[in-house]
C-alpha cells in the first residue's frame, strides 16, 4: 500500500540527547509531522551496523527514515520535516524570506557550529588541542556572535515575526555552546543573543524536545594525557577497536532528561528561602486580585488599597530602568522584549508583582518599571535565573520620599502622560 509521507511515522535514528536530532524533532512539533526517535539507540553500535551504513555510509547520526528512503545530515532532515506539509509556518511567506531562512541556517552551521566545535572538541580530546587554533576559533565565534547580536538587537526572530526553521537550527547549534562551553561571562558580551536563546529554549515546542536548559558554569579543562583522536584508517578495524573510536558522540548537553523509572525517588525540593522569612501581613494574592478587579476609581480603590496592605518589612519596592533604551527603535521588538522578560519572571510569581511601562510616542522607546518583591532585597534566585535583570538598573524605592511614592502610584496606574511622555504600552506581571 502506498503511504503518504504526511501520514507516515518517521523514525529518527539518534540518541535522545543529540542537538542535531533536536532540529527535526522541534520542527515536527511545529508542523505536526510524526517523527519518533528509534528505540534503544546505542551510539557507536547502532550507527555502525551494515543496515545503518546503508542509510548513511558515514555511520553518523541523525538519520531519518521516510517512505521514499533515508535522509542524513540534520539540516536536510529538518528542512524535509518543515516542508512536508504544504502550508507551513517554518519556511517564511515569500521567496525572499525563504532565502533569509537559508542564509541563517548556513550561518548557524558554518559560523556558529563550526567555531564552537573547534573550541570545544579539542578540549575533550576529540581533536588535537593547540592553543593558537583555539584562540582563532574563539575569535571567529565571537565575530559571528557579534553579528548575530547586532541583528537580534532589532529583531525578535531571525526572519519575520515568528519562529522559522532558521530559529530552530540556530538555537540547537547555540545550545551546544551555552550548555557546554560558553559560560555567562562569555555570553554576557552578547545580551541580545542571550535574550534570544533563552526565549527560544523556553518556547513550549522547544522545551518539549530539549527539556530544561542550564548554562555551563565552567569551561571544560583540556583533557591532558588524553591522546588526540587518530585519523580514521581505511582498512576495517577489529570490532572492539572500531567501537571505541566511534563512540565519540557529541557530548551530552546539560539538559534535564526524563526521569528513569529505576532511579531513586527525587529528593524533596529545598524550600525557597523567601518562604522562610517571618510571615507578612501583606497577602500578595489579595493585592493582585484588587489590582485586577478594580475597573473604576483606580486611585481611590486600588492605589489606596495597595498602601493600606503594603508591609515595608516583608516586602520591598524597586524601580527598574532599561540600560539600552537607544536600541528600542522598533515598537513590536520592544514590546516582545518586555513580554519575554515578564514570561521569564514566571518563576517569581509567588513572590513578586511588577509593572513595566513602554514610554514614548516614537522610538527610541524607554522602558521603566516598578517591582514589588518579597523580602528586603531582589531575590537571589531571580537575579540568577532571569538574565533580563542585568539589562536594567535597579534602585530601591524610598517610601518615605513622597515623590518616589507618587512615581510608584503613577506606574501602577499607567498614568499618562508619564513624566511628560505618552505611553506606547504598559505591561503587568501579576
Ligand atoms: N553534519 C552532520 C553531523 C553529524 C555528526 O557529526 N554526528 C555525530 C553525533 S552528533 C556522529 O554521529 N558521530 C559518530 C561518528 O563520528 O562516527 C549533521 O548535522 O547531521
Question: What topology emerges from the helices and strands here?
Answer:
Layout: E1 10-13, H1 19-31, E2 35-37, H2 50-55, E3 63-66, E4 69-72, H3 74-83, H4 95-124, H5 131-154, H6 165-180, H7 184-187, H8 191-201, H9 204-210, H10 239-246, H11 284-293, H12 298-309, E5 315-322, H13 331-344, E6 352-359, E7 366-374, H14 380-385, E8 392-396, H15 402-413, E9 423-429
Parallel strand pairs: 1-2
Antiparallel strand pairs: 1-3, 3-4, 5-7, 5-8, 6-7, 6-9
Helix pairs in contact: 1-3, 1-6, 1-9, 4-5, 4-6, 5-8
Bound molecules: glutathione.
Main features:
single chain, 430 residues, alpha+beta, Glutathione S-transferase Yfyf (Class Pi), Chain A, domain 2, Alpha-Beta Plaits, five-stranded antiparallel beta sheet, four-stranded mixed beta sheet, 15 helices, 9 strands, 12% strand, binds glutathione
Protein architecture, described:
It is a single chain. The chain is elongated. The chain has two domains: 261 residues, Glutathione S-transferase Yfyf (Class Pi), Chain A, domain 2 (Up-down Bundle); 154 residues, Alpha-Beta Plaits. The chain has 15 helices and nine strands. It is of the alpha+beta class and 430 residues long.
Amino acid at each position: 500500500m502506498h503511504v503518504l509521507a504526511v501520514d507516515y511515522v518517521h523514525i529518527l535514528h539518534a540518541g535522545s540527547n543529540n542537538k542535531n536530532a533536536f532540529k527535526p524533532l522541534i520542527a515536527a512539533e511545529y508542523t505536526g509531522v510524526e517523527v519518533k526517535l528509534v528505540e534503544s539507540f546505542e551510539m557507536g553500535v547502532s550507527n555502525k551496523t551494515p543496515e545503518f551504513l546503508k542509510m548513511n555510509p558515514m555511520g553518523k547520526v541523525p538519520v531519518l527514515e521516510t517512505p521514499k528512503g533515508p535522509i542524513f545530515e540534520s539540516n536536510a532532515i529538518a528542512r524535509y520535516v518543515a516542508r512536508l506539509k504544504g502550508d507551513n509556518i517554518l519556511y517564511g511567506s515569500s521567496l525572499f524570506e525563504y532565502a533569509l531562512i537559508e542564509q541563517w541556517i548556513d550561518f548557524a552551521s558554518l559560523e556558529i557550529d563550526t567555531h564552537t566545535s573547534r573550541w570545544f572538541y579539542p578540549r575533550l580530546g576529540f581533536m588535537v588541542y593547540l592553543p593558537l587554533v583555539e584562540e582563532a576559533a574563539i575569535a571567529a565565534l565571537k565575530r559571528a556572535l557579534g553579528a548575530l547580536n547586532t541583528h537580534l538587537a532589532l529583531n525578535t526572530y531571525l526572519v519575520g515575526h515568528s519562529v522559522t526553521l532558521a530559529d530552530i537550527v540556530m538555537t540547537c547549534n547555540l545550545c551546544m555552546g551555552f550548555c557546554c562551553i560558553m559560560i555567562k561571562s562569555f555570553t554576557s558580551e552578547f545580551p541580545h543573543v542571550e535574550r534570544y536563546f533563552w526565549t527560544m529554549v523556553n518556547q513550549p515546542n522547544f522545551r518539549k524536545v530539549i527539556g530544561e536548559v542550564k548554562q555551563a558554569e565552567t569551561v571544560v579543562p583540556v583533557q591532558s594525557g588524553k591522546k588526540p583522536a587518530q585519523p580514521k584508517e581505511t582498512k576495517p578495524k577489529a570490532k572492539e577497536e572500531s567501537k571505541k573510536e566511534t563512540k565519540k558522540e557529541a557530548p551530552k548537553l546539560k539538559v534535564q532528561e526524563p526521569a528513569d523509572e529505576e532511579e531513586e525517588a527525587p529528593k524533596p525540593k529545598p524550600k525557597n528561602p523567601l518562604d522562610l522569612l517571618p510571615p507578612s501581613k501583606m497577602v500578595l494574592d489579595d493585592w493582585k486580585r484588587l489590582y485586577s478587579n478594580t475597573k473604576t476609581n483606580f486611585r481611590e480603590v486600588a492605589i489606596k488599597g495597595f498602601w493600606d496592605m503594603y508591609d515595608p518589612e516583608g516586602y520591598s519596592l524597586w524601580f527598574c530602568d532599561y540600560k539600552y533604551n537607544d536600541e528600542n527603535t522598533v515598537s513590536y521588538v520592544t514590546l516582545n522584549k518586555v513580554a519575554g522578560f515578564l514570561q521569564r519572571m514566571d518563576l517569581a510569581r509567588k513572590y513578586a508583582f511588577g509593572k513595566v511601562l513602554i514610554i514614548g510616542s516614537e522610538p527610541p522607546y524607554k522602558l521603566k518599571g516598578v517591582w514589588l518583591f518579597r523580602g528586603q532585597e531582589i531575590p537571589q534566585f531571580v537575579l540568577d535565573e532571569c538574565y533580563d535583570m542585568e539589562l536594567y538598573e535597579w534602585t530601591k524605592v524610598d517610601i518615605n520620599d513622597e515623590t518616589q511614592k507618587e512615581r510608584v502610584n503613577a506606574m501602577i496606574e499607567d498614568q499618562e502622560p508619564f513624566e511628560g511622555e505618552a505611553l506606547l504600552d504598559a505591561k503587568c506581571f501579576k
